[in-house]
Amino acid sequence: MKKYLMGGIAAVAICAAFTSCSKNNELFDQNAAEQAKQQAVIEKKNADFTQSFTNRYGTIDSNNDWGFDNIGKAATRAAVANRANAYSSSYDFSKFEFPDNDKFLTDTEIPRGVQSFGDECKAQGQTNQIAMGVFYVDPSWTDQVKTWGVYDNENQETTGGTAYFKKGVHDYSNRLFYMADNSKIYLLEGAELTIRAEDAANLQQGSIIYMAKDSKLITDGELKLNKGLRIYNNGGYIESGSLSLNEHYKNWSTGVSREALLYNRGKIKTGDLSVTKESSTIINEGNIEASSLHTAGSGHFENTGNVTISGNTLIDSNDNSWVNNGKYHTKNFTYVAGSENVINNCMLTVDELFKIKLGDTNVNGFKVDGGVKTKNFEAAGPAYIRMTSNTVFKVTETAKMNITKPTYGIYGPESGDYAVFQAKNIVWESKNNFCVSYFGNLYVVADSHFEHSYLDGTSDAAKANGGVGEKPTYYFDNNVKMYVNGTDKPDYTIAESECNPGFEGNKQKIEYAVRIICEDLGASDDFDFNDVVFDALMKDGKTYIKVLAAGGTLPLTVAGKEVHDIFNVPTSTMVNTQPNAHYATTTDKQEFVVDQVWSSYKDIPVKVSTDANAMTEESMVTLKAEKGAAPQKIAVDTNFEWCDERQQIETKYTNFKEYVQKSGTRWQ
To answer: For the chain, what are the domain ranges?
Structure first.
């Protein structure tokens, strides 16, 4: 009986087990089906997003990494050039495109069939000059080079021909070098061309010089780029007694007009450097050493490389441009007249005196989205200094103020983080005039500052007791914070960088490495990339995050934190994406730290739910930024101004479509 009883119990147990397994299998099948269904939803949303993105922006560059590959690497000229600068010039430097590599040649790349200058002279019945032609010049040629040009009656202009100077030394310091109008001169890799001062001053209009790697152009006189003459230096070296650009080329018959242009990606060493008239333009992406720089008239200067001026820099026009996106070092910096296009987006270092005295208008000024470090500063009349968040204008000795009108002065940003104007001593030039005003989100920090009193004789103390003061020696608005006793400093620190001299306050401020803008798959026709915007820094085993905006209405997390919860709002509420209100909402939860780092900033998990009412493991989708694929997040500079709600990114940043198709494009 016992045996049979045990068998019965076992049978019941086995039967029960089979029943349980059957139910579990059914549950497993249901879960698997639900997961497959959810996965199909996610795949369709991703596919729809990709299709909409490519329909809108075209074929994606297969090398486009959406900004993530360069984060944390050493800055390069290109990286500086691609900074999301708060200030841009109204003069369009980008209209000048650097030529393709097929313009910068070696000896072996001279086009087939081109003969030597000597042979070309013989073919035209000459010994050392021709009307025009295409030829190469060998270093062994010891006579002059001259093309006198052929006049084109139809276009009413002269053409001088094309010359290729081969590798080696071409010394024309005691013989004639003359190429007629509209010539093309190729200094091939390793070619060294030295010309007389009178020939360097007589380069002909409309001509173009292409300088390949390790080529040289040398003269002991003034190198003049007048009447539309252009030099493209691609890793070569230019040395001259001085260098000037001051006239454009105009063909009145055809209407063709061309500015004089020096586009440098190599090295230049010269004396006085000037760009002074008629939209003449210098673009430097390499290195320039000069004894002085003078911009005036409608001359334009842009630097994204390195410039060293041993003497004075003079900016002297209301129609010119001086734009620094790189490193600029000068003995003195003088800015007079005033233009809206005098902009420092990286680092300006002045060894002695920065002096500003502008015309009486409200459009000019000195704009800073980087840093300035100068020994002394003088505002000698009308002056605007306009600064963005986290910029520093540092005067290591004396700032002398004599600005004369209450509306002139030092301006911090209207919103966002503070800027810093710092000096050892701030003094006033004349005790009979108003001297300076401070505006916006600005810290004024000094060991000493001239007294805040009133020119009508009423002191601060008397005014506080009912006196009337109508003529203050200086003014500061409500947002300005004054630390001018030599001991107090704000609880604010700005890290020193290649574009900023830095400021050390009482509290270490986190310098985020990148801003990440995201699109959450919620709508396939909306590419504002503001569904979440956050800054991030990975350092010492920790990730520091600051959430700035939440423009989506789906549950969304950054490193596990739901972004709407951070702002204490429901999921349906958009935060900081309405026009003129990007920093309207702040909370103490915006900044948080995660005890983890990822292999790349693009791997910081940003997840969005496909279900507006829930966050389940199955509904959460990880946003991606895969190379050559439609991006759901993009890395930008920490100064990047994100889009308003439903403002398409290409509307705010018009070069975005080109950037999608060609990843090296400047678009921010």
So the answer is: 99-264, 513-661
